[in-house]
Design a protein that fits this description.
elongated, about 45% helix, 12 helices, Rossmann fold, four-stranded parallel beta sheet, 434 Repressor (Amino-terminal Domain), about 350 residues
Amino acid sequence: MKTITIYDIAREAQVSVATVSRVLNDTAPVKASTRDTIMRVIEKYQFQPNALARSLLKKETGTIAMILPDITNPFFPEVFWGAENIARDKGYTFFLCNTAGQYSRESEYLSILREKRVDGIIFLGGRINLVNCPPELSQEVIELSRHVPIVLVNGNLPKSNLHRIYTDEAAGAALATQHLLDLGHKNIGFIGGMDDTSTTQVKIKSVKKTLKEHGLELRKEWLKSGEFSVNGGRELMNQILDLKDRPTAVLCVNDLTAIGAIKATIEHGLRIPEDISIVGFDDSPLSTAVNPELTTVSQNTNQLGELAVETLHQIINGKNPRKQIILKPQLVVRKSTGVRK
């Protein structure tokens, strides 16, 4: 069976190929009678324009890519959910790239995405969260940004001047710390994260600053890092709970770590929050799936995704959106924190 092309449609409708293209893409006015003639021919052959051909004509593929480090971490799917809803409304589809936290995979995807000629890239985690990103990793993204619009979410690259959408994590950590102080806690610990990531260091620095403002300190033995996972949180919390002198409240780098901390606390025969208060970060769906429900800090994950797509859409269409959009975090108080007794 012969494949029907735009040229066949134009020939039978007795119009130019350009006129058929204007009808298909709705890029310019076409006389109603001419449009009706073209649409009858299109419906007759059930013609569907070839996406590749359309992309060559318009120099757009209608595809946005998202690079993220861990699809199992609820934070990233929540950002994707917000992005995907807006992208669909604007006519984009997604190319989702899960790197498993490997910089080599990030590089592979960056190369693939350029070959696929995606219209834009949303980048989360990985190299953009390193405290000291190696110049070659940063330059790789900067070089690609000269050809493909890139938006960074909750991260940055030195000397890149790329568009960024991020939540003020320092303000979020300060909110959580102040909440515990207001409940009467003076002995406060912090667990989770990795020392070489900015998202960890920003939170730790903020906790220390808030405590210092109240004449307190984050004691070295109450600061445990090394993981972002549930198992990591459980192990790190065990180290805290095994201390002879332990804190009465613990802040966690994210909700996964906090859930691990809750498990460890219960296994030690302690009550939450009567014996120890625990605070998470992210306000992921898991925060209400544990018992007790988790006090946490909302990063407005859906909004991060929505704004990332909106920014990309503006860049793709030749507009000049703001370089940085900063979201305010919100403290969500639930049952895992209580008054110090």
